[in-house]
Specification:
- The protein is an alpha/beta fold.
- It contains 5 helices and 7 strands.
- It has one domain: 3-Layer(aba) Sandwich (Rossmann fold).
- It is about 40% helix and about 20% strand.
- A 7-stranded mixed sheet has the order 2-3-4-1-5-6-7, with helices on both faces.
- The radius of gyration is 16 Å and the shape is globular.
- InterPro entries: DUF116 (IPR002829).
- This is DUF116 domain-containing protein.
Amino acid sequence: MKLCKFPKKSKEEIYKIQAEKQNKAKSKKFAAVPFDKRIVFVPHCMRKTSVCTAVEKDSYYICGRCGACKINNIVEIAKRLGYKDIFILKGGRAIEKIIAAQKPLAIAGVACYFEGAQAFQMLNGKPVSVQFAPLTKDGCADTDTDLNVVERVLSQRAIK
């Protein structure tokens, strides 16, 4: 008798499934939060470090709006929608510190699937709603994302 074997999923596929499942589960709660009670986290690996004018502050950077990378576009979208703030994270450990200081009701994050799944896990049970937009190219430098997906995540709002 032959047993049916399921193909083994890679860790990346597992993180993707986890992040997408969490996005779906938390989307209504996120959409109900006013834009001015939300913040955005983006990874420092999206910066073009050779020309970046971001200002380093504690465990994050503040975008210098040089236009060398898509972070400038994300800042533009967030400002247009009325988001409270945007942070370019040096690492995931900064999240808890920033949340304690900013007290957002919702967070929109851009990250690789691994970091996105980790953030959902870290914030599970906390009074903050999270949505995630994945990187389309990950790694430790010169990463990328789809701005249409990021804008779709950031602009979610409850239908009245």
